[in-house]
Structure formats: C-alpha cells, structure tokens
Design brief:
Layout: E1 2-8, E2 15-22, E3 29-38, H1 41-47, E4 57-58, E5 63-70, E6 82-85, H2 94-97, H3 107-112, E7 127-128, E8 134-135, E9 148-152, E10 156-158, H4 174-186, E11 193-197, H5 201-211, E12 217-222, H6 225-234, E13 238-241, H7 247-255, E14 259-264, H8 269-278, E15 279-287, H9 301-305, E16 309-312, H10 320-332, E17 342-346, H11 350-358, E18 364-368
Parallel strand pairs: 11-12, 11-14, 12-13, 14-15, 15-16, 17-18
Antiparallel strand pairs: 1-2, 1-4, 2-7, 3-5, 3-9, 3-18, 5-6, 6-10, 7-8
Protein name: NAD(P)-dependent alcohol dehydrogenase
Domain Enoyl reductase (ER): 6-367
Family: Belongs to the zinc-containing alcohol dehydrogenase family.
Length: 370
C-alpha cells in the first residue's frame, strides 16, 4: 500500500515527507494506522549515525494507532483495535523465555537491523520507493514516523478505549524506560534516597514512578530551571541545578551522605561519572541514557569495589506489555500524569519538533499523523 513517511536519506539529513510502498502484513504481522508517534532521543542518535541503523530509512519507535489489517495466524486483534506498538523480540531465545524480552539475544537486529526479525522474509524490509528501491524500516520493529507501520502482533499492547490514543505512543519507549527502571530494577525500599540525573522524558517518568514507591527522597538534577520546576510538580522532593552547583556535593548534602540509587538518564559521559559518584557502599547506579556508540567511561576502583553496583537498563526491563499496561492504569487513576510532558506537532513539522526537543523547549514532542 502507498503511505507517507518521514524519510532520512543519509546521516544528518533532514526528515523529508516521502511517499513509499509498504507491504501488506505477512504471517504474525499487523498493519497499524498510526495516529501519533513520539519523538525520542534515540531517533536523533540514529539520524546522526551514533546508532548503526542503515540509511536511507524511516525512524520512529513510539507509535500508537489502530489496527488496519492482520496477517495470517494473528489472533486477538481485529481492525479498529487501539494499540501501542511496543519493542520487538524473537520470543524464542533464553532471555525472552525467561520473561526479559527487552534483552532478547537478537535485540540489535530487532531494533536497528533495518528489516524483519523473523518469518519467511526475515531480514527483508517491507518499505520501498515507488520505483522499487528498498528503504530500511522496522526501526525498533515499527518505523512509526509514517502514516502506517508494519509490526508483529507480539509487540502490540492494547489501549483501553477511554484513554486518549494519541498520548499513548511515548509509553513504548521514553516513559516506560524511566518508569520501568524504578519499578523493575530499583524497586525502592522504604525511605530510599534516589537521585535522577536528567529531567527529560525518561528522568521525569522515573520521578513519577518513584513517587508511586516508598522512596522518601527523590532528587532531580538538571540544567534547565523549567524542567526542575516540573520535576518538583511531578514528585521530586528536591531539585539541583547542575549549572549552579556541583551535583555530587549537592546530592550528598541533601541525602546526608551517599544516595541509595542514582539514575543516569542523559547519556552524557561526564554525568555518568557524577551519577556513579553520588552512591556509596551497596548503592546502585542505574545507566539508562543512550550515549553514542563506542562511548566509554571510567570509575574509581576502590569506591566501586566496596559493594557499589553499576547496572544498565534497556527499555525499563521486564515485559513491555505488563509495564505499559500498568502505566496506563496509573495514568487513568491520576497517579502518573505523563501528559504533562507532551506537546503535539503536525507530522509535517517533524524537524521543528526534533529541534525544539534538542533545545530543551519541549520535553516530549508527539507527532500527529494526518
């Protein structure tokens, strides 16, 4: 079928709305008419070549929409069903079978391989130019910067009909990544002291999740005063402006010593070290932010040796369907107001939305499809 997609021709090229042909769904696949798609930091990494996705290609991995068609063998979904498109996974490897599909052993291929993960046409892209030339797709299993996206039925999460569908896309990645780091990895104990470095979508989602936990000190660290103010409104007990204060000293002063947990949500290497330094013996530093490929960081050996844990988290860990459904329920109960992060843009303004996000003017841009 003929669709419109935001195509990136080469590294650092602008998004260009382009007509492409998209395959009909094959076995186990579902065609989704995209209603809206969030823009994530990871889309920018791929566009700049810091994430190895083949170009020309179509990005976008926070899509929400309605089922337009289902392929052979798909049960449980029908035309018109409202859904969020979650992360892909093979479903068969050791980690998938253990209930950790975010760490699928074929994750690199699933996220940035540019083609289908499995099935009779594994490795092939479903996107082509009208003249037949292939275009890389299936970014995070969806490539949802488009009017339609082809995904697998296993990646879908059903959206209750009383929730605003256009808002739900960011649950696929940014919101669930921060929230899942708290709910699935940190699991704060009563009275826990948590420092969150970076008050973007991921960090603010982590703060909202921490507010729904027994943690009693939740510290937001950022350089944007407006985001620190929002962090307080969403659950942070304290805020540290890193442009005015040394964040390590400030966090330790607020905690009366080391923090129990630090969440690094920026992907900035200098900030990684700061996050690691604010936790002490038996403390945990959780790495969440996406740094450029091949980025490295160093740690002090002695202080790390004394029981400190450095843990990486992808997509919030756990099972995406359970996590996304839980956040939707918390939102419906008024306990997770992630709508406060969102600003909507027309699909044609995709480049403006991304630029405003980079400038710190918008926390979570969401594109509405025509």
């Amino acid at each position: 079928m003929r669709i419109t997609a935001a195509l990136v021709e080469e590294v650092d090229a602008p998004f260009t709305l382009t007509e492409l042909d998209l395959d009909e769904p094959g076995p186990g696949e579902v065609l989704v008419k995209v209603v809206a798609a969030g823009i994530c930091h990871t889309d920018g990494l791929a566009r700049h070549g810091d994430l190895p996705f083949p170009l020309p290609g179509v990005l976008g991995h926070e899509g929400a929409g309605t089922v337009a068609a289902v392929g052979p063998g798909v049960t449980g979904y029908a035309e018109g069903d409202p859904v969020v498109i979650g992360w892909p996974s093979c479903g068969a490897c050791r980690n998938c079978r253990a209930g950790e599909p975010r760490y699928c052993e074929r994750l690199a291929t699933a996220l940035v391989g540019g083609g289908r993960l499995g099935g009779p046409r594994a490795g092939e892209t479903a996107l082509r130019r009208p003249d037949g030339r292939p275009v890389a797709g299936h970014f995070f299993g969806q490539s949802s910067f488009a009017t339609h996206a082809l995904t697998t039925a296993a990646a879908l999460v059903r959206v209750p009909p009383d929730l605003p569908l256009a808002l739900m896309g960011p649950l696929a990645c940014g919101v669930s990544t921060g929230a899942g780091a708290i709910f699935n990895t940190v699991r704060p104990h009563a009275g826990a002291r948590i420092a969150v470095f970076g008050a973007g979508t991921v960090g603010l989602a982590a703060i909202m999740a921490a507010r729904n936990s027994p943690a009693t000190r939740i510290i937001a660290v950022d350089r944007h005063a407006s985001r620190l103010e929002l962090a307080r409104e969403l659950g942070a007990t304290d805020a540290v402006d890193a442009s005015e204060h040394d964040p390590v000293d400030a966090v330790r002063d607020l905690c009366g010593g080391a923090a129990d947990y630090a969440l690094e949500c920026t992907g900035v290497i200098d900030v990684v070290r700061q996050a690691a330094d604010v936790v002490g013996m038996l403390g945990t530093c959780v790495l969440i932010g996406g740094a450029p490929a091949a980025a490295e960081f160093t740690l002090d050996h002695v202080s790390t040796l004394w029981g400190k844990r450095i843990v990486g988290v992808l997509g919030g860990g756990g099972r995406g369907d359970e996590l996304i459904t839980a956040i939707m329920r918390l939102y419906a109960q008024g306990r997770f107001p992630f709508d406060r992060l969102v600003e909507y843009f027309d699909f044609a303004d995709v480049q403006t939305a991304l630029d405003r996000s980079y400038a710190g003017e918008v926390v979570k841009p969401v594109l509405r499809m025509p």
